[in-house]
Amino acid sequence: MDDDKPILDQVTDAASSAATATAEAAKTVVRKVKKAARKATKPAGKAVTKAPPKKKAKKAKKAGKKAAKKSSAKKSAKKAVKKTAKKAAKKAAKKKKKARKSKR
Q: Which ranges constitute the DSSP H helices of the chain?
């Protein structure tokens, strides 16, 4: 981290970068889920005699999965923000202590 920047700015930057990273991760997860769903709905080459499942049930299931993924992404974002803030505070305290020691 930069020594010139105030701690508040450093923490804010870290939090925003963590939020961006989690948003990108969530997008990737959604993309992979959609791709897997497309593969599952494609016929395997053989004629299927069973009736296709109802679309409403499928959509509800997908929505549930997406909601679960989003909430876990939010939690990990919060956790990352907390962690970076804690690290920044710890680092600042360590620097302060080192500066005091060098004055002696």
A: 7-41, 55-103
